[in-house]
Design a protein that fits this description.
With 79 residues, the chain is an all-alpha fold. The chain is 67% helix and 0% strand. The termini are far apart. 0% of the residues are buried.
């Protein structure tokens, strides 16, 4: 039984190990890029989300303070 891969003298377990190391290196690279992106754009995104949240709150509060003229036209027992 031949343990070599693709006609090389490299055993299968070394090829699997190489794949694992490549996977770990790629995962680490993605993590570093994500952390860098959050560091660069984090404060800007936070400000935008706070702005949207505040605008949403204002809209909801404004909507809660207005009286609906006829919310359900099919009901007769409305005030």
């Amino acid at each position: 039984m031949n343990n070599n891969v693709n006609g090389t003298n490299c055993p299968k377990y070394l090829v699997r190990g190489q794949g694992l190391v490549e996977y770990i290196a790629l995962t680490a690279l993605v993590a570093v890029v994500c952390i860098g992106t959050v560091k660069v754009f984090g404060s800007k995104v936070t400000r935008q989300l706070n702005s949207v949240s505040n605008k949403f709150d204002q809209t909801i509060r404004k909507g809660l303070n207005t009286k609906v003229a006829n919310p359900d036209p099919f009901r007769d027992d409305q005030d």
